[in-house]
Every structure is written in C-alpha cells, then in structure tokens.
Write a structure and sequence with these properties.
The structure holds two protein chains of two kinds.
Chain A (H helix, E strand, L loop, with lengths): L2 H14 L11 E5 L4 E3 L5 E6 L9 E5 L12 E4 L2 E5 L6 E10 L6 E10 L19 H26 L7 H26 L5 H21 L3 H21 L2 H4 L3 H28 L8 H36 L5 H4 L1 H33 L3 H26 L16 E7 L2 E7 L7 E9 L2 E2 L5 E8 L7 E9 L2 E6 L6 E10 L6 E9 L2 H6 L1 E5 L2 E8 L9 E8 L11 E6 L4 E4 L1 E5 L2 E6 L5 E9 L2 E9 L2
Parallel strand pairs in A: 2-8
Antiparallel strand pairs in A: 1-3, 3-6, 4-7, 5-6, 7-8, 9-10, 10-11, 11-12, 11-15, 13-14, 13-16, 14-15, 16-17, 18-19, 19-20, 20-24, 21-22, 21-25, 23-24, 25-26
Helix pairs in contact in A: 1-2, 1-7, 1-11, 2-3, 2-5, 2-7, 3-4, 4-5, 5-7, 7-8, 7-11, 8-10, 10-11
Chain B lengths: L1 H21 L6 E5 L2 E7 L4 E2 L4 E9 L4 E2 L7 E7 L6 E4 L1 E3 L2 E9 L7 E9 L2 E8 L8 E2 L13 H41 L1
Parallel strand pairs in B: 3-12
Antiparallel strand pairs in B: 1-2, 2-4, 4-5, 4-9, 6-7, 6-10, 8-9, 10-11
The chains are: A alpha+beta, B alpha+beta.
Amino acid sequence: MPRRPLLALALAAALAALPSPAAAHANYVSSNPAADARLQRAPQEIRVTFSEPVDPRGSAIDVFRPDGSRVSTSSAAPVDAASISVRLEEIGDGGYLVSWAALSSVDGHTTRGTFAFAVGNAPLPAIPDLGPSSPAPSPAELAGRALSYAGIALGLGVPLFLLLVRPGDVAAARERLLLSLAGALVLAGTGLIVLAQGGGLPDRFAAALALRAAAGAALLAAARAPVALRRELAAGAGLVAALSATLVSHAAASADAAQSALDLVHVVAVSAWLGGIVALAALVLPARAVRDALAAAALGAVVWRFSLLALVAVAAILATGVLRSLRVLLLPQDLVETPYGLALLAKIVLLATAVALGALNLAVLGRRLRLAVAPERAKRGLVRTTSAETALLALAIVATAPLTALAPPAEPSGAAYDSTQHVGGLRLRLLVASARPGRDRYVLRVQEGLRPVSEAQRVVFRFTMVEHDMGESEVVAEQRAPGEYVAQGSNTAMFGTWRVETIVRLPERDDVRTVFSVPVGSDGASAAARVLSLGERTAIAFTDPATPVAGAPFALNVVLVDAKGDPVRGATLTATAISASRTRELRVSDAGNGRYLADVDALEAGAWEIAVTLEGRRAAFPLTVSP
Amino acid sequence: MWRALRVAAALAVAVAAQLPLTEPADAHERRSIGPYQVIVGFLVEPAFAGESNGASIQITDTRTNTPVEGVERTLTVDITAGGRSQALSLPLTTRFGQPGSYVAHFVPTREGGYSFVFKGRIGEQTVNERFESGPGRFNDVQSLAAVQYPDRVPAGADLGARLDAIAATAERTQWIALAAAGLGALALALALLRRRA
C-alpha cells in the first residue's frame, strides 16, 4: 500500500481512539433556597450546589425581580468545591428569579439554568427559559480534543507495540515520524482547546492541559532520543498524556477513584489497540517481504503477538466500556432512544466490526503466514484488513465526537427523585423537585424514540400513599417545553412512600400508564432512600437515621411494592450488611402493609453495602456509617 | 290510625334506606348545568373491561328539586376511550322506575380512562359537557384480572393483541424460513459448481 494513504488511514485510526467522552457537565443539584421554594423570611444569600467541582471565576449567580432589577450584590464566591453563593440586598415579599452559570473545573464546559423562589405570599415568577442547558462544545474544541486524543493513541500505542510485540527491525525514520506526529498532534490539540476556551480556563483543567502539553513535548523529544531510550520515554509520555485525558473526564468529575481507574484503563487499552494497528500497518507490513517460508513465519509471529496484545486490549475495552455504560445508561433502550446512546451504539458496532477483522487477521491470515500457506496472498489480505480496520475506526470518529457534546442519560439532575421507565413505546422520566412533604413540582419528560412527545392531549399524575389509605388525588400537568409536562401541588403531603401513576393520553392510542414509587421524607431520609429493583417488585430502602453512627443502633426500613405500586405484604425479605472485612445478616421483620424493618444494634464505622434479597433477586445500596 | 302511621313511617325509612343503594353518587361526578344538576358515571361501578356497562346520567331540576324527564329525546352521549378521536355516539334510554335517570349501554373493552360528552338539550338548556373519569369524579375502567377466580381469563382486547403478536411472529418466521431456504439453495448451488470445477 502506498505510504501516504496508509499514514492517512493510520491517522484516522488514531483519531478514532478518542477515549470516550469527557462530557463532564456541572449540573444543578440543589440550592438554598430550593427551586420553587416559598419562604417566610427573605434569604440573605443564594447558594447553589453542582454535580461536580466548579470554577467560581467563570461561574455566576444573578438574582432578579420579575421586573428585571438585580438584587444580588456580589459576584459568585466559592462555598466548597462544588458550591457557590452570592449575597443579596434586603429584599421583601415577592417572586425572584435566580439565573446561574457554572464553569466546570474538570473540563471547562459551561452549563446554565434558572430557577425561581418566592418570599411571602407572592406568586412564583414564570421561568423564562427551559432550565439547565449545556451548550455543545465548539468545533474548535471538538477538533482540539480529537487531535490530542489521536496523539495520545499514537504516542502510547506505537511504543507499546514496539516494546511488547517486538516486531524486530523497523524503519527508524518512520518510527521517529510517528512519534513526532503523536507529539505534534497532542500539542496542536491542546493548543486548540486552550484557544476554544478563551480566557476562562479553570485551574484544574489548565493543569491537566499543561500536563498534556508537557507529554506532547516529551513525545517530540522521544522521537529524537537514542533508540535505547526512545520507546520507553515515548510510552511514559503517552501514559502521562492518557492520564491527562482521564483527569478531565466525567469519571474524574465523579470523584470516584474506581471510575477514574476504569477510564484510564479504557484509554490505555484503546491506545494500545489502535496505536498497534497503526504501527503494524505503517512500520511492519511495508517493510516485510514474504518471499520465503521463514520470512512469512516471522511476519506471522508478529501478527500473532500483536493479536494477543489486541485481544487483551479488546477485553479491557469491553470490560471497562460495559462497566462505564452501566453507570451512564439508565435503560437498555437508551442505546437507541437517546442521542448519546445512538452515538455509543454506533461506536460499539464499528469497534465490534473492527474486532471481527482483527479476529480474521489472527485466525486466518496470521495463521497462513505462520504456516507459509500462500503467504503473498495472506499478506495482501492482511494489508486489506488492517486498512479496512483503520477505515472502520475512522468512521468511529464520527460516532465518538458527538459523545463529547452530549450528556449521558444518567447525568445527575437537580430533582430529589429522578427515575425513568419505558412503557408502551414511550420513555417516561419522572422528576420530583423535592422529597419533602408538602407542595412539590412534578415533571414528566415524555419521549418516543429520539423525539420528545409534544402532542399529548392530557398528562396527569395520580397519587396514592402506599402505607396509609389517603384516597387518590390527581393533578393535571401542562406542557412547559416539547415533551416536558409539569404540575405543581401538595399531593405528596405526608411522610412515606407515594405511588405516583402517570397517565399520558396520545391521539388515537390507549392511555400510557405507569407507576413510580416515590419516597417522601425528611431531607436526610429522602437523600438516603434508595429505590431498588427486585424483578417485578420495587423496594424503597432507607435507614433511620440517614447516616448511622458507629456503635449506635439504627433501623433499616424497606417498603416493598409491586409493579402497580401496591404494597407487597407477607414477603420473605432478607438483608445483609457487607463491609470490606465482614458480612452481617440483618434480621428483617414484617412491619405490616408492605413495610419491612430490620433493627440493627450497631455497625462499625466505614463503608458498607446493604444487600436486600427477595425470591432470589438481589439489589444493594451503599451505606456510610460515620465514626 | 297509629298503626297506619307506624307502617307509613317504616315504609319511609325503608325507602330512604334504599336510596343510597340506587343513588349512583358514590363514584360519580356532580355538576351544575344551568338550573340543572347532573350526576354522571358508569352505570355499574367499579367498571370492568369486557363487562356490560353504560354511561349513566341523573338529572334534577334544582328550581323544583324534581327529576327531569323526557331527556332521552333531546340528549345523546359520545363515549371515548383514551386518546381516540372516533367516539361512540349513543342515544340515552330511561331507567325503569328511576325518573330523571338515563343510560347509554355499552361494553368498555379497554381498561383505562374514558370520557363522556353529553350533547343536546335539557329542557331549554343547551348542553355540551365533557366528563372525564378520574379521582373525585367517576372511576376508570379496571382490568377484570384482579377479581377473576379461580382462573384468569384474558379480556377480548388482550386476546386480540396477543393474536396480532402471534400473527406478526408467524409472518416473521415465514420470512426467516424463506431466507434460510434461499441461502440453503444458494449454498447447494455453489457447492455443486465448485464440485464441477
């Protein structure tokens, strides 16, 4: 194959190594006062908490009266890593709008939103926009990310190939060229990201980019280093560059070390695979003739060793990809019903096809080379399949690039209750603003495929309490945005578990009905309440107190409801508390009317997992016992 | 005399005691339309899918507190299930022995929400009123499954849906079988050609 097309394909393959997206977004999680709160006394400050660390310099909170006059008197000040606040002038009774913008410290993305609150008996002002929005990254930012990730794949994958596969002599000039290209791509990509970001570069993001740029410079230096040092130096620089990608990823934003580790393994594995293909295609295949059986067997052995490396990489990509998908996807249908899922699915299909071609290399073409059976033909086939593999991966760029701009379905929301179901061909996401008893806001987002359903004739919420007979109440929702239906009321007026039936009436169709089980309690209890799926049953589990103290007794409460939200009485439920060092069976008693109780005398301080099992189905939630 | 009075009082108590049983106000919606008060709901509550039922309306003239008769000639009802635009339009019939009470018999075949739209006239009052099932009004139609014993028999609509699904599966299977047969024939032809070569 001519050198330039091969290099172009190799570059495209490297571009496809875009690690999955660093789509971190600082979303509104909570505020004081809460959204739609009605206060007796005017607040002196507004505090907003986000789903990940924010940079106060690029973040803002502005508070306005409905006439547009500003009542906030300071710029946003940090409260903690993920919270900012502003001071207010003395305000009286009335409705107020809070407009916020948050600059993610992790990746520099800005999110915006608005909420309202009222003091006294004044009406809540209408919210002028449609809530939080995450503007898509600019083309310059996308290009910057693509280029730098391509550099990471080349910078790490090529030296890994040379060190682990040991292909023998390769053209030093080509090797230096690939490493130089990797360094240049990392530097160019980083520069583009900085340009796209303008002046508002958060410190943490800037530090990660500086690290990446240093790694790019190290790759350039490695390209000129003596051969004895070149590959180790390049691999180290590539690893640092990969680490810089993880540092600005959504996994890093979650502050979960395990997620960051998964992300890093994913990036390294993708780089090893794609950089390896590029190295095989650009350094090995053009340089190896297979005129005799010995030469064919030698090339076959290289293909075999690379295939083993690729197999390990693919296994790691598969494992980390699945584990991460479980975190970012809510339902299997997300893959075909959300833009993020579709992009992910396209990437999966393309990578799976590339894996199939890799399997062909390993099982058929590589074997023929090793056995010297029609080696010339086998080599030509190998060139074709590696080219096809790179082309497929180039297509994966198209699928992967939007992932950086799209929010995953499981992105945190500011709602106290947030659950999604798929019923009657519709995707129904219920958000309940507060988990406190009393007036609340209920939002139903209705989607059919990728399309928001805006033609619903009627959307209603019906409320019944699980533990007590309080009758049934109903509130009719109004459409606030395409596919978003909102109602407010005091329907969940009591502590306990509420069965919220949503009914969506669409033209010429049966009503689509589904039931959500919503726990309502004090702030602490509601924060700790977990909705666990046990087959056709749902358990709402919470502890009292919400954060147990080491050595002190606490109660584990479980409310068990069926698919219709009705309490399940007389079930045999078991519960287990598991920590790193021990497992404790908890004695669960039937407290009647679908409620089950385990009185726990004490647990040691630390992280525990509470597992609940019903008829062989198991679900678990984490519990922290404070010292 | 006293005996006759006692008998009359007992009869009055007995009749009064029967009133709540015949009065369909338990899960029905009351509404004022001009000088008339109407009570609307299903004839039989709770209403089950697949069971004979009806849209009932009871009309009282609030000026005279008397039942309004003769409305079966001037009022009709449009019945709609879910979001369907095609309504079932039915005339009203009187209910024997219950002046001012009317019914349009029908069999609700789907569970869920129903709406009744009464159109026409009550006396001189023009009527076009929509009544929607729901809490505080009249009940939705429920599935029979919850109350069937000892065997659960699928409702007609469910059976129809299942038959449709089976037919669709059979059709898909047919296509798959045809494709498989075609592939088999192609493979056989290729094998024969290769053998000749």
